[in-house]
UniProtKB/TrEMBL annotation:
Organism: Castellaniella ginsengisoli
Domain Pyrrolo-quinoline quinone repeat, residue spans: 2-79
Domain of life of the source: Bacteria
UniProt-listed Pfam families: PQQ
InterPro entries reported for this sequence: PQQ_rpt_dom, Quinoprotein_ADH-like_sf
Lineage, top ranks: Bacteria, Pseudomonadati, Pseudomonadota, Betaproteobacteria, Burkholderiales
Record-given protein name: Pyrrolo-quinoline quinone repeat domain-containing protein
């Protein structure tokens, strides 16, 4: 095993009646630069609505993503603007993505 990461998440379903996993998503820079962090990223979503971006080589959080490597996805549920996050041919996007959600960790 190269590395492991513990999200320290609560294993309780917030939006669905049963615990589920959707797996992870992977992104790689078009021309990865050796020695630079987060040129390859593993995205992990948790049951408590956190979206983590981890450096695929080291397992460390990508500090430039969200707030120190994490976006609080539950922020959108409390916002009047609702939408869904998705991975579509690249990095994750969300149609409700706005600064208050990115900063709320």
């Amino acid at each position: 095993m190269r590395w492991e990461f513990d999200t320290h998440s609560t294993l309780e379903a917030m939006t669905q009646p049963a615990l589920k996993t959707r797996g992870v998503a992977y992104w790689e820079a078009e021309d990865p630069q050796a020695g630079q962090p987060c040129q390859k990223i593993v995205y992990i979503g948790t049951m408590d609505a956190q979206l983590f971006a981890l450096d695929a080589d080291t397992g460390r959080k990508c500090e430039a993503f969200g707030r120190h490597g994490v976006v609080n996805m539950a922020c959108a549920w409390k916002s009047p603007r609702t939408g869904w996050a998705c991975l579509a041919g690249g990095r994750p996007t969300a149609n409700w993505w706005h600064w208050t959600c990115i900063r709320a960790a």
